[in-house]
Amino acid sequence: MSNTAQYDVESIRRDFPILHTQVRGKPLVYLDNAASAQRPSQVIDAVRRLYESQYANVHRGVHHLSQESSRLYEDARVAVRGFVHAACVHEIIFTRGATESINLVAQCYARPRLQQGDEILITHMEHHSNIVPWQIVCQQTGAELRVVPINDRGELELERYHEMLSEKTRLVSVVHVSNALGTVNPVAEIIAAAHAKGVPVLVDGAQAVPHLPVDVQKLGCDFYVFSGHKVYGPTGIGVLYGKEKLLKEMPPYQGGGDMILSVTFEKTTYNTLPYKFEAGTPNIAGVIGLGAAIDYVQKIGLGSIAAHEHGLLEYATTRLRQIDGLRIIGEASQKAGLVSFVLDRVHPHDIGTLLDAEGVAIRTGHHCAQPVMERFKVPATARASFAMYNTFEEIDVLAEAIVKTMGMFS
Asked: 3-state SS of 108-169?
């Protein structure tokens, strides 16, 4: 199968040096993108250039290098604002990742507002990072965590969601795209229903932003979070988008340098947004690398990327369904980016090991989504997840390696 003339996947692949390596004597087929995507030369070069000729600490110095680093850092914030279509740059907070962003909202927004009898609503398909912070804040406040079920296809039971929204609900936190199932949730409908009852919504977009255009203003969400390394940027950097009004009302997450306007032993006056939530020397290289990654993705176009990846997903689903003894876990009508599966008589960890011998990198395990595994009564799954640089030929290699693996256990 060939790609469309409008989407030059081979040109894109040339921008990713690691894709031209070999693993165990075989060409690398990297299908672990939901865990972490690879980085293009444009991101690598931006980070290298920073350290070679532009680096100093940001926001504090009057000398040339500090001014240059600060400009690059804030240019990246502008790029993120445009990427998610936030209303203004000070609604963009840099964190260590989606996990820290969720914890920040849990402690700075939810905790001061929750009391005994209140409820937080999440779904059965959440990543652990969108479960555990809410469990912690419920333990701290006496609130209750309630879970919206999913059906056998891995789709949210929307009728149950509407039923569970109540006068006790104080926050809804929902994944945009499931990392374990690939399900794309109808977040616009989820947000509208919550807002009709005056309930704010956080959306975990870690698996969405590499695959789908996101407009936080059109969605209307109150908070949106994602991690840089999923969208071809560095690790250790993430984003929290929050509506300006809510961020202004929230106390800071951490205390330290740069999140203050003045400090005495009697009183501290906090800085304005977004710096109130960015204590200490930030991950400067991570932020600048993320800005370069976003520029790269937007140059190619998320619409084009989504169309290419949808073709990969359809082709992979068709190929894998043809393999006797293979069962796909999660067959929602709206999916993005990945196929999770199990094989008869073969543990997922053995699948991952044997595919690695063929140069194929996939993820095996519970994917930090143990409740999903429990829902489908499997200990783990094997997961092949796609990115802008993957090809139909790589899916053929994956399918052939799976058949070979099954042959070893027959």
From this structure: HHHHHHCCCCCEEEEECCCCHHHCHHHHHHHHHHCCEEEEECECCCCCECHHHHHHHCCCCE
pTM, rounded to two decimals: 0.96
For the annotated catalytic residues, the residue numbers are 368
State mean pLDDT over 261-272.
93
| pLDDT tens-digit series, residues 384-394 | 999 999 999 99
Residues 278 and 57: their CA atoms lie apart, in Å, by 14
Q: What phi, psi does 385 have (nearest 5°)?
A: -125, 140
3-state secondary structure of 205: coil
**CATH architecture entry for 45-299:** 3-Layer(aba) Sandwich (3.40)
Domain 9-30+301-409 classification at class level: alpha beta
- Residue of 164, 165, 115 whose CA lies nearest to 137: 115
Structure token pair of residue 336: 């993005």
6: helix, strand or coil: coil
Q: Rounded distance, CA 230 to CA 247, Å?
A: 25
Q: What is the rounded CA–CA span in Å between residue 392 and residue 403?
A: 17
28: left (phi over 0), alpha (psi -120 to 50) or beta: beta
Which of 206, 223, 208, 146 is CA-nearest to residue 334? 208
